[in-house]
Amino acid sequence: MTQDGRLVRGERTRSAVLEQALLLATVSGLDGLSLSQVADALGVSKSGLFAHWRSKEALQLAVVDQARRQWTERVIRPAMTAPPGVRRLWAVHDSRIAFYESGVLPGGCFFANAHFEFNARPGVVRDRLAAELTDWMTFLTGLATEAVTIGDLPAGVDPGQLAYQIEALGVCAVMQSPVLGAETTCRQARSSLLEHLRAIATDPTKLPERI
After folding, report:
1. Widest pairwise Cα distance in the chain
2. Residue 8: helix, strand or coil by DSSP?
3. How many Å apart are CA 179 and CA 14, to the nearest integer?
């Protein structure tokens, strides 16, 4: 096998491991994740994984990166096809809820789970998770600011407050769904934001009338 071929094979193995690790982390927790657990799930040797990650912490950080890539592909990128303004703000919430409904991650939302798990654990992993949350809230606030700037929302709307409300609805939906049912919580998360956006939008016809 050529060097390029080995690199491709190694990258494919790395991607497969991270995908499996991400699934396991939503069930067992990020702290409960281990190279042995991932190796067993994939049916490969633990020693082979050490070529990619020399420590549990390195694996945890790589899983956070994988989760971000998945979030970008499943939530952000689809929403960015919507026109800027209130429609894009609604689209990112809708695509987020659709991602939860898909059941891709068996334990729900990786980031919500990991934040709860590491909030009281100072260290590199907590710092990385905090940076991810900051980036996400900055992104939501930016979308809300854009909606105000182009006139879809009144000048008096606080973009940061609106971003907080959107995040709260998303987290509440995914955290309550195992108990109250995904159909109920996801419907409520959608309808709550839609009603709010229609109530404050300068042109409510840009948004769906109902879910």
Report:
1. 63
2. helix
3. 34
